[in-house]
Amino acid sequence: MGGVLTVVKGYAEALSQMESRVSIVLTYLENSNCTDVSDLFGKSPYLNINVFRYSLLENRVHVLDKLSKLVSNKSAVLVCNDYLELDMINACKILNPSVLIIHGDYDYYYNLASSSSGFIDKCFSVSPVITDKIKKLLPKHLKHVVSIRYIVNAEKPNFGTEVNRLNAIFIGRLSKAKGFDVLVQVAEKLSAENLNIFWTVVGQPVDVSYKEREWLKSSNVKHFNFLSNLDVLKIYKHQDVLLLPSLQEGYPVVVVEAMKSGVVPIVNNLETIAPDILIDGNTGFRIENNKIDRYIDVLTLLYKDQLLLSTMKRNAVKVANKTFNTATSMSFFTGITEHFEPRQKKFSKTNFSRLDRRYIPNFVVKNIRYLFKLIN
C-alpha cells in the first residue's frame, strides 16, 4: 500500500473512530492498471467510500463537474492529494475550506503546491524536510504549511534473530528509480560470499532487466506482485532488515512500518527519508551515495552480530512508536483542521484543451478524441 493511500486510510479510519463523518473519493482512470483499494478501508457508519472513474477521452470540464457533485456539504473540509481534485476546486470555483497534502520530494508536488496556492487554505506535508522546502517556495503562506505524521499500525514486534540467517525485505516498484537494480547486485554479491540471506520482494516489475527477472526466481527469493497492508504487516514479523535503495523519496511509510515492527531499515542516505527517526548506526543505517559495497558491509555485520541486530530492532521500535503516536498525531491533525481563517480565494485560468468546454457535450468530445486516437 503506497504512501498516499496510507495517509488517507490512516486519518480517515482514525477520524471515523472519533465519530467524525468522513467521505473518501477514490479516483480511477479507465484502462489503467490501478488496483481497486476500496475493500482495504475499515467498515464504519461514519466512513463513506465513493469510487469515481473517468477517461482521458472525456470532456475534462464534464469530468470535474461530475466529480464536484460528490461534494454535497458546502462546509466540509476538502483534503486534496493530487491534480484532479485541485482542478475540480479551481474549475468549479468551490469555496469549501481545502487542504493539499504533499506526499513526495518531487517537482511534481511542489508545482501542485505553487499552482494551487491561490485557492488552497492549508498545505500539509509528510516530511519536515519537504515542509521547509514548501515554506521557501510559498513565503506568503508560512503559517499555513505544516508537517503531519502518518497514522501507522503495526503487529507486535519480533526481536528474535536466527543463527546464520538474515531475512531481508524490499517493498516498492521494481525499477531503477526505487533502486531495485542495486538490490539485486547486493544480493548476488552476498550470495557469492555464501551468506544465507533470504529475500522477500513485494512490488510489480516496472523497469527490470532479464537478469533481474531471473534473480526473482532464485530459491532464496519470494516475490509478491501485490500484498495488502495487513499481509505486509504480518510478513514484517519474520524480517530482520528492510532495504530501500531509492534514488528519490518523500517520507517513506514503509520505513515507519518496518521500524514499528522491529525491522531495521537500511536506506540510501536521502535527506527526506525519515530524518528524525532513522539514526545511522542506532535505529538503522544510511548508505552514502547508494554504495553497493557499503550495503554488503552492513548486511554482513548484522548477519554475524545477532546482539547488534537485536539491539537495533529494539531501538527502532522505541523511536518509531514515540514519534508516530496515533493519539498525538490525531490531536494535532484535528486541531489544525478545525479552524480556517476567512480568505478571498483566487482561482486561476484553466489551461484546458479547446474541446474541454462546458457547452460541448461530453459524448461529442469522447468521439472526436477516440477518432483522433485511431488515426494516430
How would you characterize this protein structure?
The chain has 376 residues and is an alpha/beta fold. The protein folds into two domains: 194 residues, 3-Layer(aba) Sandwich (Rossmann fold), CATH 3.40.50; 158 residues, 3-Layer(aba) Sandwich (Rossmann fold), CATH 3.40.50.2000. It is 38% helix and 16% strand. It is built from 13 helices and twelve strands. Helix 6 links the parallel strand 7 and strand 8. Helix 2 crosses helix 3 and helix 6 crosses helix 10. The two termini are 36 Å apart. 35% of the residues are buried. The model has no long low-confidence stretch (mean pLDDT 92).
Write the layout of secondary structure elements.
Elements: H1 3-17, E1 22-29, E2 47-54, H2 60-68, E3 78-80, H3 83-91, E4 98-102, H4 107-115, E5 122-125, H5 128-137, E6 145-147, E7 166-171, H6 180-192, E8 197-202, H7 210-215, E9 221-224, H8 229-236, E10 241-244, H9 253-260, E11 264-268, E12 285-287, H10 292-304, H11 306-323, H12 326-337, H13 362-375
